Amino acid sequence: MPDVTDNTPHVFTPSALNRLVRDLLDDALPMGVWIEGELSNVARPASGHVYFTLKDANAQVRCAMFRMNAMRLRFRPADGMHVLMRAKVGLYEARGEFQLVAEHMEPAGEGALQRDFEQLKARLGAEGLFDAERKRPLPAFPRRIGVITSPSGAAVRDVLSVLGRRCALAEVEVLPVPVQGREAPPAIASMLRKASASGRYDALLLTRGGGSLEDLWAFNDEEVARAIHASAVPVVSAVGHEVDFTIADFVADLRAATPSAAAELLVPDSTDLERQLRRLRQRMATLMGRRLQAAAQRADHWQARLSAQRPQARLARDTQRLETLRRRLLTVTRQSATLRQARLARLEARLAACHPRRRLEPARQRGDELRQRLVRAMERAIERQRAALSQQGRTLHAVSPLATLERGYAIVFDERDAVVRRADDVAIGERVRVMLAEGQIRLRRDS
């Protein structure tokens, strides 16, 4: 650096001046800076480097992010994005341009969301909302399941598909709520409270598809977490993808990696139930056979003892009693077997009656009935609207310019179909259209 006490002027070359300024910047800000602003002029050449401008309402600065740092980005920078960036301040000597060399960049706000997430997680965890001791097991055979989610998302389609395939006997009700945006947290918490208080459900499933941290933020809300904690029935949480974790996942009685996985955890497989029923039926038949054999052996034993008794009168009497007992035993055994077989047949019939094919025709008939009711309701509504329209038409006609035309007046339009209110609005030679009560006349102004 030149001696400032020397009165002799020091002459710099552009290279020397730029190098001096670069060194001054390096000395003043050796650790770099954090800076926030809006991206513009984003360019990604084949080298893999990223060049862009960071600006706010009053100023802008050129920036560069070299390939190794750019490869670690979790998003693709684009014009208009608001970002938070850590960068070293420097000078590009070749052109004498002040620039920032970015080392790290993230969407502005995401870091704040993550900090809020960690703080809420720590606070609720300290209150015991995540304790394993308070988590309840799911019912083995839920009769009715409430699915709290968006009715138009892919998650609800996956859940309904898996539940219908695994256990058609379980009733499923979709409880619609928004799953993203400012209105989502209070709506989700309110639906959780209503579903819990209704007593209709054996289990609740809270779910939505994947997304960014901001997209899933409704499930990191404290009101939602406390509504899950206060639920009277078990709650399963399946929010986002397998790598996504929300506060709802930690509070819920069970966390599933995906909506489909949650559906598989909620209900048993009907194929396994059918296989178990067949095993029980075979076991019952085996036990009945053994009981019949034992009864026959006892009858033979008593018959042998009776045959050994004397005199013949007693033998005959006892033989008759034995025959009576044997017939009663056979009758009771057959009746018992018949009752068990009838009960088994009823169970099989009930299982067959619950097959979706049996329920499809009543559902189709119900759909036809509802469709006819809808058509009739629409016809009545159309008739009411037609009557109202007719009345409004009569009212409108009473104040319509057409009624004025019928009294001998006319409306004049110029060539642009604008209403002519003064003669000066029409130039000499310009054509006009005169609208009468019946028909139109086209004229041209001559003077």
TrEMBL record:
<dbReference type="InterPro" id="IPR020579">
    <property type="entry name" value="Exonuc_VII_lsu_C"/>
</dbReference>
<keyword id="KW-0963">Cytoplasm</keyword>
<dbReference type="Pfam" id="PF02601">
    <property type="entry name" value="Exonuc_VII_L"/>
</dbReference>
<dbReference type="InterPro" id="IPR025824">
    <property type="entry name" value="OB-fold_nuc-bd_dom"/>
</dbReference>
<keyword id="KW-0269">Exonuclease</keyword>
<keyword id="KW-0540">Nuclease</keyword>
<protein>
    <recommendedName>
        <fullName>Exodeoxyribonuclease 7 large subunit</fullName>
        <ecNumber>3.1.11.6</ecNumber>
    </recommendedName>
</protein>
<feature type="domain" description="OB-fold nucleic acid binding">
    <location>
        <begin position="15"/>
        <end position="106"/>
    </location>
</feature>
<dbReference type="GO" id="GO:0008855">
    <property type="term" value="F:exodeoxyribonuclease VII activity"/>
</dbReference>
<comment type="subunit">
    <text>Heterooligomer composed of large and small subunits.</text>
</comment>
<comment type="similarity">
    <text>Belongs to the XseA family.</text>
</comment>
<keyword id="KW-0378">Hydrolase</keyword>
<feature type="domain" description="Exonuclease VII large subunit C-terminal">
    <location>
        <begin position="129"/>
        <end position="443"/>
    </location>
</feature>
<comment type="function">
    <text>Bidirectionally degrades single-stranded DNA into large acid-insoluble oligonucleotides, which are then degraded further into small acid-soluble oligonucleotides.</text>
</comment>
<dbReference type="InterPro" id="IPR003753">
    <property type="entry name" value="Exonuc_VII_L"/>
</dbReference>
<dbReference type="Pfam" id="PF13742">
    <property type="entry name" value="tRNA_anti_2"/>
</dbReference>
